[in-house]
Design a protein that fits this description.
Layout (H helix, E strand, L loop, with lengths): L6 E6 L3 H7 L6 E5 L9 H14 L5 E4 L8 H8 L4 E6 L5 H17 L8 E6 L2 H5 L1 H5 L12 E2 L1 H8 L11 H14 L5 E2 L9 H14 L3 E4 L5 H7 L4 H19 L5 E3 L2 E3 L1 H22 L1
Parallel strand pairs: 1-2, 1-8, 2-3, 3-4, 4-5, 5-6, 7-8
Antiparallel strand pairs: 9-10
Length: 297
């Protein structure tokens, strides 16, 4: 079943009180972070915090950002912090398809030790370097048994650091990477990616909304967020409007009636409607239904 990921909120794994607060927000996904948000001296202790919170909130959509492959912490992160209730792993610093195969082997071992179904822990690689952007299609199309990648996320902070450039309010420097990543995901047949957090000015909601709209226009399904105040604007941007839902329903109804009469292309309200337009309308209604179910939880 497709996951609803309009917003994915990062929360430090060594701050149990902030994790509790995160699960009382309207974020679709909570990412408990064992990497950048946790200092080295706290990383091992944080794993027990993660285990406790996963048990407590196992009915929610929980991802854990582990430390990178090659890190001295990755093995302990997987062995101690991954258990039933964790829906997926966000893996930082992914740069090549080989990283996916290595991670799949590690996750198979974890699933076996925890008596979890193979493939139940999905993988969310972070694309956050020049090498990752260059190899993004190879990464997202890496074939593993079981299927492991759900989608990827873009990390602009490390990407711009790697490139030696500055992030701007307008985001022109991110356009190439932001264009390649959704195209690669679509070509590989996986879910649309998740966009980078907006970090320029956490108080500037107008700039956040503009940034989220740019990401949506390029094919991202949602956005990583780093503060609860960013959740509502991003949920709103990545949700179908009532007008869009009503239009999608009209398109599907009119097309199905025409199809039953032997026509596969019609005009509706002055616009050409064919199978791709209808599929887009159905996808939109699927998102709307997922949002409606979440609201009823």
């Amino acid at each position: 079943m497709p996951m609803l990921i309009r917003t994915a909120l990062f929360v430090p794994g060594n701050r149990p009180e902030r994790i509790d607060k995160a699960f009382h927000t309207e974020a679709d996904v909570i990412i408990v972070d064992l990497e950048d948000a946790v200092p080295p001296s706290e990383k091992e202790r944080s794993r027990s915090v993660v285990r406790e919170k996963v048990v407590k909130y196992r009915d929610r959509m929980i991802l854990v950002r582990v430390n990178a492959l090659g890190s001295p912490f990755i093995k302990g992160d997987l062995e101690e912090a991954i258990l039933e209730g964790v829906k997926g792993i966000m893996l930082p610093k992914v740069e090549r398809a080989d990283d996916i195969h290595v991670m799949n082997t590690l996750l198979l071992d974890v699933e076996k030790k925890r008596s979890l179904p193979e493939g139940s822990i999905r993988l969310f690689p972070l694309i956050e370097s020049a090498a990752a952007v260059q190899h993004v299609y190879d990464i997202v199309s890496a074939k593993t048994k079981p299927e492991r990648i759900y989608t990827v996320a873009f990390g602009a902070a490390d990407y711009t650091l790697d490139m030696g450039i500055e992030m701007s309010m307008e985001g022109a420097e991110l356009f190439y990477a932001r264009s390649r990543i959704p195209i690669a995901c679509r070509a590989a047949g996986i879910a649309p990616p998740i966009d980078t957090p907006f970090m320029i000015d956490l108080r500037n909601t107008e700039a956040l909304v503009a940034d989220a709209r740019r990401a949506k226009e390029l094919g991202f399904q949602g956005k990583l967020v780093i503060h609860p105040q960013q959740i509502e604007p991003c949920n709103r941007i990545f949700s179908p409007t009532p007008e869009e839902i009503a239009k999608a329903e009209r398109i599907i109804q009119a097309f199905e009636e025409a199809e039953a009469a032997g026509t596969a292309a019609i005009q509706l309200e002055g616009k050409f409607i064919d199978y791709p337009v209808v599929q887009r309308s159905r996808d939109l209604l699927t998102i709307a239904a997922a949002i409606s179910r979440k609201g009823g939880d």
